[in-house]
Amino acid sequence: MKSKNRPDKETYHMAKEFIVAIEIGSSKITGIAGLKSRDGGITVLAVAKEDSSESIRKGVAYNLDRTTSCLKKVISKLRGTLRTEIAYAYVGIGGQSIRSIKNTVIKELPDDTVISQDMVDELMDSNRSMSYPDQEILDAITQEYKVDMQYQLDPVGVQCTHLEGNFLNILWRSSYYRNLKKCLENAQIAIADVYIAPLALADSVLTEAERRSGCVLVDLGAQTTTVSVYYKNILRHLVVLPLGAYNITKDIASLQMEEQDAEYIKRRYASAYTDTKDIDDTLKYSIDQDRSIESHELIRIVEARLDEIISNVKNQIPEEYDGRLLGGLILTGGGAELNNIEEAFRRKIEINKIRTAKFVNQPVSSNHSDITAHNGMMNTVLGLLAKGNLNCAGSEISDDLFGNINHSTSVARPSESLQKPSETPINRQPEKPTPAESDVQTKDTDIVDEEDTKREPGALSKFGKSLKDFISKMASEEE
């Protein structure tokens, strides 16, 4: 009999190629395996989840043994469902170790100098060589270039004597890398590539019009809230706040009840906003046979915490974008499932256009209940899967007559769209950076007013390479 939440056996038998992605979250570690069609559609073959609340805090692994155990269980579940070994996996990173900071690199040029692509590349190399205490540059996103007194998105070919590159550097803590690296190695997970989870999420839930017109993406997670600001197709600000939906649960639990009961009360009765005329002072919600909670008390607790979260989100929207983010505010994540969440944000933040992204933009085929729920909780891991293009399938698993597991020696050949990595990224040697003669300083910059936008050529595509270079450097230092 076919399982409601699983593809049929014929699908497994034919799935010699698939992509695997893992999201490391504060409440759970989620693994997913699926196929991608040429038009970007996704077919989900398997989903696995493990509770990580006792091993990960605010997106950062603090109990390495338990995190390793969770990762092993996720891979084991995927492997058992697919009846195929997992050779590689894409990993999404986020949490409170991620933040962004602006940086400006200046280069003075002789008279009548025409800017070349090499000069632009030197600015980026100089930016990437910036040193931050106990932090490394995970990705660098070009904001704009200042050519003499004018701002340009593509300065190549322009004549000037003063060239200035404005960048947004995304940083992560070196200690986070070391812990994550150790957990993945102990779980025997070979990394196909590592992606910044908030960027993968944005690529899958934001529309082109929203990114171009300017918008705020708010991912309401369990222990963190991630705020990403886009303007003219470029990421302008990224921050992870140490507050999330779990804080609301703990606040409710402070009324002398178990967290499990508090979570139930939150999901069943809580509202992000309640009009004063709708408050019933006589209404009570039952916790169990002997206890109950008054409705107005629940409203007070929930709205107080939501006000704090929303106020922090508002403070993270740079003032230079006031009135300019015509794409509005987009909510997603499990916390966005709270009743009247859009109205709560609308009343606290002066943005009228607000929507909740309950699912990704790509067409997805799946019978799995976690996918079909369309509650925003699978958006990030689906976004990670959508970015993958390497075949993560290993050898096929089969049972003999005695129930023992046999591993086929044959490995599925990669297709044109799925290719095996030539080597594990964690062991790759970094290339020597190109030296640049320039002055470096950090400051805020103006926003370019041109309609056409352009990110540093290959900045997103170079992210995997730069991260692998960083991982190799860290590995060499440890040795």
- What coarse outline follows from CA principal-axis ratios? globular
Mean pLDDT: 84
Specify the number of helices: 13
The main sheet comes to: 6 strands, mixed
- Name of the top-level CATH class of the domain at 209-356: Alpha Beta
Please bin the fraction of helical residues: 25-40%
CATH superfamily of the domain at 209-356: ATPase, nucleotide binding domain
Which segments are poorly predicted (pLDDT under 50) over 5 or more consecutive residues?
1-14, 408-463
Distance between the termini: 53 Å
Helix/strand class: alpha+beta
CATH topology tier name of the domain at 209-356: Nucleotidyltransferase, domain 5
Number of DSSP strand runs: 23
Cross-sheet strand order for the largest sheet: 12-7-1-2-3-20
Radius of gyration: 24 Å
Architecture of the domain at 209-356, according to CATH?
2-Layer Sandwich
What fraction of residues sit in β-strands?
Answer: 25-35%
Can you give a write-up of this model?
- The protein contains 13 helices and 23 strands.
- Among the domains are: 75 residues, 2-Layer Sandwich (Dna Ligase, domain 1); 148 residues, Nucleotidyltransferase, domain 5 (2-Layer Sandwich).
- The chain is of the alpha+beta class and 479 residues long.
- A hairpin with a 3-residue loop joins strand 1 and strand 2.
- The N terminus is likely disordered.
- Helix 5 packs across helix 12.
- It has a six-stranded mixed β-sheet.
